[in-house]
Specification:
single chain; mainly alpha
């Protein structure tokens, strides 16, 4: 296939940048602008709803995790004294802190510090899950290596299964 050079006119159009799409009729342009504005508002509303749903899911997950830490703290506190109980409670508070406890501004939105704290808390959780998964994969690999030796093979005179 032979290479064909683009015409100079096309090159100049690209070089100048995209031309704004404007209708020749002002009423038509007004309708187009109105439709685009309405579409943008609907998209933003959908994104806010999706973010709200993710936030509610996050609240449920963090609440469940905190309940589990408190259950451990209560069970160990009776037998081992106050230090394990305090450690479990502190870990649950730091790692699984609910969204409403991060710093907010007057309008109720998270401040930059609050957003960073929330992101750090959730990143710590993700790192913990990743480390747990890596440890489990390593353990599984060790177990696989321990099986399949001569003791697991058929001996002479045994029938194949």
């Amino acid at each position: 296939m032979a290479y064909r050079q683009q015409p100079r006119k096309t090159y100049r159009q690209v070089q100048q940048g995209p031309m704004p799409a404007r209708a020749s009729n002002p009423e038509v342009q007004e309708q187009v602008d109105s439709m685009l504005q309405s579409l943008g508002a609907r998209v933003m509303e959908s994104l806010r709803y999706g973010g709200s749903q993710l936030g509610q899911l996050d609240d449920r997950v963090q609440g469940f995790a905190q309940d589990q830490y408190l259950r451990i703290a209560d069970a160990s506190g009776d037998r081992l004294g106050g230090i394990p109980r305090d450690l479990a409670f502190l870990t649950g508070e730091i790692v699984h802190r609910p969204r409403q406890y991060f710093e907010k501004d007057a309008s109720g939105h998270l401040t930059r510090e609050g957003q960073m704290g929330l992101a750090a808390s959730r990143a710590l959780q993700a790192g913990g899950l990743t480390a747990a998964g890596a440890g489990l994969a390593n353990l599984t690999g060790r177990m696989v290596d321990s099986f399949g030796g001569p003791a697991d093979e058929q001996g002479p005179g045994e029938l194949y299964i």
